Amino acid sequence: MTSNLILFNKPFRVLSQFSAEGDKSTLAEYIDSPNFYPAGRLDFDSEGLLLLTNKGALQHVIASPDFKLPKTYWVQVEGEISDAALEQLRQGIELKDGLTKPAHAERISTPDVWERTPAVRHRENIPTSWLSLQIREGKNRQVRRMTAAVGFPTLRLIRYAIGPYTLDDTPVGQWVHIEPTEPLLHEVTQFEEQRKRKTSSPHRRSAGKTGQPVSNDKGMARRPTRPKSTSRTHRK
User: Active-site residue among 32, 43, 97, 112?
Assistant: First the structure.
């Protein structure tokens, strides 16, 4: 039986959605697997790991910061990242929408990753460096704002891991079916049990006029009807 989870290595400048938006590339150009939807998002100008599922409860658990799946990013920044900046990231950064939680931040050597198209703009008199940054929350464009706040603007952002899942062995623009881990399935089971208890409460109104129970997948956005793609590894 096909897995309920897909791991996709999203290229640069691809929207994390199937519906069209102007002339921007979308997931529809890469993934041809009906009824799968992103569990969380990855910015248009960011690259790397995106998980998709056809189960609403699994989608919620992966995407929600309440379940605290850590997300690890490889970040190329302008300048040689300093020890002081790394320590600030570890302590938490004050952003306009609040203080970030302490992150795991460390300097890393240049990772062995694919070439980005278009390439990152380099300045001869300004060096660049890489760091690994692991966070457990999901503020809007959080990583970019965090590095800018400590004086090192992000030039390239790659999400390497979500919980136990990584980009290892998945080339850019390609996807594979994967199996949910036991801890993840346990979280899903607990979430579904909590939802059932709330739904069965005598003080809770019926979710619909007919009184029929709500399917686990009703909360998922619908994908527009489209012809099936003949390629799964197209690169824009």
Answer: 43
45 is catalytic: no
> pTM to 2 decimals?
0.82
How many domains would you assign to the chain?
2
Clarify whether residues 78 and 134 are in a common domain. Answer: yes
Q: How far apart are CA 107 and CA 25, in angstroms?
A: 32
pLDDT at residue 207 tops 70: no
Q: What are the backbone angles phi and psi of residue 162, rounded to the nearest 5°?
A: -130, 110
CA distance 220 to 35: 9
Task: Give the pLDDT score at 202.
Answer: 62
Establish if 29 belongs to a structural domain.
yes
57 and 121, same domain (yes or no): no
Encode pLDDT of 128-143 as tens digits: 999 999 999 888 999 9
